[in-house]
Each structure stands twice: as C-alpha cells, then as structure tokens.
Amino acid sequence: MNEYSLTNLRELEAEAIHIIREVAAEFENPVMLYSIGKDSSVMVRLAEKAFYPGKVPFPLMHIDSKWKFKEMIDFREKYAKEKGWDLIVHHNKEGFESGVGPFSHGSKVHTDLMKTQALLAGLDKYKFDAAFGGARRDEEKSRAKERIFSFRDKFHQWDPKNQRPELWNIYNARVQKGESIRVFPISNWTELDIWQYIRLENIPIVPLYFAKERPVVDMDGSLIMVDDERMPKELRDKAEMRKVRFRTLGCYPLTGAIESDAETIEEIVEEMMTVTVSERTTRVIDFDQEASMEQKKREGYF
Amino acid sequence: MTDKKLNIQDFLNQDQKKDLLRLLTAGSVDDGKSTLIGRLMFDSKMLYEDQLEALQRDSKRVGHAGEDIDYALLLDGLKAEREQGITIDVAYRYFSTAKRKFIIADTPGHEQYTRNMVTGASTANLAIILIDARYGVITQTKRHTFLVSLLGIKHVVVAINKMDLVDFSQQTFDNIRSDYESFVAQLDIPDINFIPISALKGDNVVEPSKNMDWYHGNCMLEFLETIHISSDRNFTDLRYPVQYVLRPDIKFRGFSTSVASGIISKGDEVMVLPSLKKSKVKSIVTYDKELDYAFPPQSVTVTLEDEIDISRGDMLVHPDNLPRIERQFEAMLVWMDETQMNLSTQFYIKHANNSAKARIDQIKYKVDVNTLEKSNNENFNLNEIGRVVITTTKPMFFDPYKKNRQTGSFILIDPVSHNTCAVGMIIDRLSSKNLPSRITDVDKENIAMGKSLIQSGERQEKLNQKGETIWITGLHGSGKNELAFSLEKKLFENGATAVLLDGSSVRFGINRELDYSPADRAENLRRVAHICKLLNDQGIITICSFISRNDSLRKQIAEIIGKERFHMFYMNAPLEYCKNNKPELYDLVEQGKAKNLPGVDLEYEKPTNAKMEFKPEENESNIDKILDYLAVNKVFPTK
Q1: Which residues in chain A are closer than 8 Å to B50, comparing Cβ atoms?
Q2: Which of A114, B306, B342, B519 lies most in the core, judged by the most C-beta atoms within 10 Å?
Q3: Which 8-state DSSP code applies to residue A255?
Q4: pTM of the predicted model as reported, rounded to 2 decimal places
C-alpha cells in the first residue's frame, strides 16, 4: 500500500458516494428507501457523507408493513429525530385496516400486499423517479446480475433480459415519464464489508442484531420472536426464552432468529465466519417458491 | 475467551487494510470458467455451507458434472439461464483471502455476448482468459484477448485449463503459450502470464499442482493475491470532473466528484474548463476530515479561493496540463443495442459527468473481432466494433482512453428508447484536415443570441398568418413537388407570404457539398429545418418538399422547427407510379450508377403521424384540403 492507494472499504465508500451524488445530480425526485436494517444504516451514512457539510437533498422512505419489530420502529423514530432526516413512512392503509398479516394470510399474500404493493404505491404517490435500495450483489444469486442503476418500467418491473449495459462508472440516468431507476450504491459490498464499516464508522444499528434473551417460538425450524399479541395465543404459549439474535430484520413473524452469544460486532463477525447458514435463509419469504426472489424482483420488490 | 476476542480484533484490523482487485473471467461455456471461479471461492472458504447444500441439491437435478459438485450452478443466477445451462449476462462475485478482496465479473464466452464482456472488462484491473488445453488458442480466445486489450486491461492471466485431460503435458502448455504470444504481439497488453491448471481437479488453482512439477510459477490464487495493481491508475494528469455542486448555504460552495485522475492538493492553482478561469484550492472537504490532497478514486468536495461560476460537467485541471477540449474526436465504438445504428440519430453522450448531444459523423472502419480484419461499412449491428468520428454539440474535455480510462470513455444513449446503445473509447485527436468538410468549428457557447424588438404577435397581426411549416414527405417522384408548387401559388394568390424549399433549391447552393449518404441526407434535412425555423420566426410560412425517409429524421426536424408549428403531410404514391413519373434517377440506381435512393436500396418508412395522406392524382382537391387545414388551424388566414 502506498500513499495513493485506498483500502477495499474506502474504495467501496468512494464508489457509493459517487453513485449517490450522481442520482442527486441527474434525477428530479429521488428517494432513499430505508428499511431500518444494517445495510440501510450504512447507506444513510454514505448519503450523509456524500453531501457533507450540506444535508441529504432527498427524503428517506420507510415502507412500514405494520409488522416490523417494535425495536425497529423505536430506532427509526429516535434517529430520524436526532439526525433531522426528512423521513416519509408509508404503509398500505387498506391492507392494514382489513387486517392483512402473515399469521392470517400467509407470508406470500402479506409480503405482496404490505411490502411490494405498499412500496409501489408509495413510489407512485410521491412520483419518485429514482429510489435507492440497500441490496448487495452477494446476498442472492439473481442480484449478482443486477445493474447498479436498475431500470424499471411504468409498472416498476425489472426485466433481467433487457438490462442496460453499464460500463465504467458512467450511469445512464435517462427515463421517460413514469419510468424509474432503482439504484444500489452498495451493490459491491459483502456482508463482512458492512460489518467492518459499521465498526469502523460507529454506525448505530438496531439492538436486535445483538444476542440477548428473547421470547421465541420454534415454527417449522424458524425461531420467531413474540413481539406483540398479534401472534396467535396458542403459539405464544409455546414461547421460551432463548439467547438469540437476528441476522436480517423484517416483519417479525417472517424473520427467524438464530441462537447466538454474539453481543458485539466482533463477536458477530467471528460467528459469521464459522456459521453454517448464509444470511437470507433466515428470511422465510425466500423459501416460498422456486427462484422466489427473482420473481419478486420482476414484480417490483427489491 | 480473551484470547479469542483479541484474535477477532486482529482479524478485523487486518481485514480492513486489504485492498481490492477487480477481475474479469473470459472463456467459453465449456472452458471450465465457472468451475474455476467456484473453486477459487470454495477453496478459499468463503462459501457458506447452505449455499453448498443448495448446490448439491441442484446438481442432482440439472447438473452437468456427473457425481461431482457442479460449481457452475453456483454462479448461474437466473432461472431461465440455469435451464439453458449457460450464463448470459455479467454476474459479479465476491471473495476474500487473507491478503486481498476480489470482485469477479463473470462474463459469458459465446459470440453474441461481446456486449457483456465489454461491460465486465470496463471496471476490471485484470483478466483471466481461459483456454481449453485440448483445443489451444481458438477464435474465441482471440476475440476475448482483443476485447481485453480494447478495454485497456493491463494484466492478463492466461489459464490453460483441463491440463488433466492432456496428461499434464508441458509440451502442450508450451505450444499453446507460444501460439498465444505470437497472436497477442499485435495487441497492446503490457503484462501477460500463463498458468497451467485443472479447475475441476484443483491443480494450480489454490494449491500448487502435484502433477506438474515442470511448472515453477505461482498458482492462480497466489498470483491474484500478489499482483501489483495500484500503480495502474493515472496519478499524473489532474482531471476533476465536477459531478455535483454543493451549496448548503450562502457561505459554502463546494464542487464534489470522484477524482478521475491525478492528485489535487490544497493550495494548487487550478483552471476551470470550459471558462478557463483560474483559482486556488482552498480546502478539500470530506465528512471525516479536511484533506491535504486527494487522489483517484476518492470522492471529495473542493472549495476554491475565488467565486467562479462552475456547474456539473465542468472540469478542474492544472493549468499546465490540459486535456483536449474539442467537439470532435475519434473513438473505438462498441454497438450495444439490438437496434441497428442509425447515422442520422442525434444521440445523448455521457462523458466524465458531462452530457451533450452527439452525432456519429463517419465510420472509418469496422473490426471483425474474430480475425481483427478491418472493413468498410455503413452500419453497426449489436456487438460490432469499429472506429468512428464523433461530433458533439458542445466541447468535451477528454484524453485518449489509453492514457486515461476515466476521461477517455463515454456512452451514447438513444434519444428515443433511452437505451445505452453504444460505448466508446477515445483514440486520439482528430486533426482538423481530416474533418469532414461540413463540420465547422464555431463554438456555440460564444454566440450571443440577438433579441428582436418585434413581438411574434405583431408579425402575425401584420401578415395575417402564423409562421409555420408545411412539410410534405414522400418518395422521389411521388408528386410532392407538384403539390408544393401549386400550394405555393395558391397561397400567394390568397395573399399569404410563403417560401418553398425543396431538394434542388437547397442542394444547389447552401448544401452543395453534401452527398446522398444517410449521414449527409440527415445533415441536409437538419439545415433545412434550421432555415425553416429562421423563416418561421420571422412570421413566414415555409412549404417543404423532402423525401425525409424515416420517423426518426422527421422527429428531429420537428424538434428543431418546434413541434407545434410543424405540419406534416404524406404523399402516398406507389413505387411504380414514382418510377413512371420520374424514371431518370430510378434507372440510374437500377443500373448501379447511383445508390442510397429511399424506396429502392434505402428503406422509406411511412410516417406514423402525418396530418393527412394524399394520392398524387388528386392534386386539386389535395390543395383544397391543405388550405382548409390551414384555415381551421388558424395558420392562414388567422382571422
């Protein structure tokens, strides 16, 4: 390493900042989708870096399925206030009022109505022409082929066979009215990069990532935490306290915990290096159907 | 427990100091490329066990590797492709060893996907080219190597794979090596290395082979971990292409970008392009701290001592080291679109955070990627490569790609579909004597627009007409001229002021150097459209009779003139009628003495949005219809 070389992390950081600024420069009405997860937290920090000493010139939007962990919502409210983010919280009002949820409707219907459809409605409502997402290419096979600027048609659909070529760091930002781009500034980061960066930058994350005694129910092999009374009583009655943490965060009934003793980032990384299940397998939704994430992406879900 | 914690701390501290190597793998479906990548990732222990389990499950269903694990399945992400058994796009893979992190751009080898390989190569520092030891250097090897050289990758590793199938023979290896070396001599790749491997069996991939003691070099992984790449960047020529102007409040005005090349330091004297104004770097701001200097590819924000007007696309440079500042350049172009190149299109060009419109003025030659032979051709199809001359609507600040990947690369975007239809690498400056004669060097930015003291409403009032354009399209000999001239006469008799423009009137004088190639036909119409615009601005009606052979041209004309004052009519005559009506030109084309005649050897697209369609034999009523149309639309008379 000489004085003019960057470490892996700083190179990825520079790339992400370049991408974020490019979107701010090229689009009229961008938004950053904020999931409250660790990748989102990293992405928001990168946006803050991109425009320092100014403020981030676009809003954050959280698609609230109304089934997120309580701690996630507390975290969101705390930091939105503290950091002065321009935060939009959007949810599927009709779905919520008619009581859609994973216990009653199953993960497929719930995810479609409360996540995918809510997201699309949110994007349409505010007429966003670009939306940042925190997806990484190493998470899942179909993402490995997605562009950083990922073109979506009027119906927000992704066509894997018809992606725009993307060369160097020149991004094609041209869209017709109604079309949009999903932008993935941390495409090239791995899970380890994310943890390293959180550690290096002291980025706050939701405490659910760290191991703690929590009430969980074993549902077909997934450890589901009892987060509120909406979990059917017969399930709640089976709950037991176990020391667990979450590798990803989402709707609590769809997000399995893993048993763990990792209470610090270092311990998480250590565990990760030896763990036997990769990240997304704790998300129940991926197992619903063959190549299900690719299917969801075509429909407009990230 | 304390020991363990210390260890993980050490691990993380070391991990965060690793650098990043971006590499490209090129090879055909059967070369074992995916197997090599799978093994690099698997044997360096970065595969999670459940991915492995899924892999074993999939292997049984659609695998091609018999009882062994099919590493290729791990990499082929999308459903449809898995069934076809081929990778069809660029897939990015990540792995890390104790020494380095790696991003692999995995691109397919078969012919129709040059596009993907070029994409993967654009960000890579190094390329692994796979050769099947049984077949040696084949056409595809040459194609991959050419593309690697075209995209300016400086380091190549030729992995001669499947050595197990040739009895690990040194002779085979040496033969392939010398074949490759003699072929690559004509290309421009500074660093080439050869490694004999068996990806399937693991020889010389992560562990040195026990079967090839005649080979004394590094195994693949060791080679990738140790190759020196940080000096590949250009640290000499400062190019700071402003990406974003940061103005959070009145006090702070910063210019943000990722440093493209060179070093920018606090206190440096810098010049702003295109204004040529000079100032000094006051500070280099980042979220973490102010820096004394910044280098590529850092993303920073610079403030200057003086208040200078700077916007996105402008460039900061050192005054003694300027890029080329021009509106024309030559480039190697790769056509990326399913749709054939259309020379009359005005593209958007994106280059170093700068955007403009651009036209391809000339195709110098096309290169056959298989034979490297050059040929002349009018057009580019998907995956074709060649050397072109490009003219932009405003000056660009560029360097040859060879010297500077960042300021030597650009993309072209189709104005209608918005697809990235071509990508280019700038070669070197086009000397002005080679310029096509029609290109003038006037810098548009320096023309101050005069402002008339007469309002358009006043002109309309006085002339009792709106300055608008009646455009008649149709084949040569279709009778559009007859219609145009009769219409001109009728309007004159009724008291209107109209000017008629047709092919002969403009080609005789103002456009006399233009020929009938598609590019010159487009230029001819562009000028006519500007004449119409000038006349219409003065309140004068223009009647234009031009073949104007396709919608894309017509759309550009409408845009120049102004869509709201462009009225297009279509003279729809059968080709046979046209040939009888004006046989001379058609005969010449038939005899091979002339070419590029729309309707014969050049396509004529019927307009999709003409206001009215006419038959030539109904000349009288056609004129009445147009007069009615003009009256209804209050073009003439206005009252």
Answers
A1: 276-278, 281
A2: A114
A3: B
A4: 0.74
